[in-house]
Amino acid sequence: MSVPIAGKPAAFAGDDELLAACRRGDVRAYEQLYASHAGRLKSIALHMLGNRQDAEDAVQETFLKVFRGVNGFQGQSAIGTWMCRILINTCYDALRKPRPDGENVTVDLVSKAPSAPLRVALDSALKKVSPNYRMVFWLFEVEGYRHSEVAQILQVPEGTSKAWLFEAKRELRRLLTEGGQ
Known about the structure:
Layout: H1 15-23, H2 27-49, H3 52-69, H4 79-96, H5 116-128, H6 131-142, H7 147-154, H8 158-177
Helix pairs in contact: 1-2, 2-3, 2-4, 3-4, 4-7, 5-8, 6-8, 7-8
């Protein structure tokens, strides 16, 4: 096992060692898990929920679920893939809850594209794409997951992930070149 140096948390060599340390209740392992995955999970949650506070709440809820369920994790996928599936389910739960202020959730993707006009056009076009296509596009193109991981996260066959990405790109291309008509 790694030893902390100068007050910094120990780095665990791989997922197996990290998972074993989490199962033992090692706080440093959870800190490393959070440091390694929180940024990507926040990005996905923000994409799904459209609100920074809701996204942060969903990520915190996800890490609580990971903490509670780590002993039940079978290791049939990578830890990050498993956590992403938990996050997506947590976000779906949040979207089903009635909002006390009655506001509609809108996804703001404007900050991801390189120029302001392109960002606005991309945001508008992505809102018009099927939610399944949009999620595959986001996970694959923005977050950098492989199709095998996207398939595990969304619980669909890998071929479906590839087909949905193809359809998402085709629809986005049409919406962006034809002005969404």
